[in-house]
Specification:
With 78 residues, the protein is mostly helical. 64% of the residues lie in helices and 0% in strands.
Amino acid sequence: MKYIQYIGDVIKYHRKKAGLSQKSLADIAGVGKTVVFDIEKGKETVQFKSLINVFNALNINISLESPLMERWKNGRME
């Protein structure tokens, strides 16, 4: 599965569990209804800021992970 479609599936699952229509989620997130539709369909041209707004509206957190993250975090704190 493509990662972008995985994100769309996660958004759709959370939206439905919250009892929201695409339009109501879009209103809460401050984006257009077509943005939510495009995300759920796995469209790759959705703006990152719009995606973040939808994540925030659904209380979904993003985590960045890699073998170097701990070293990077430590370097930033110095």
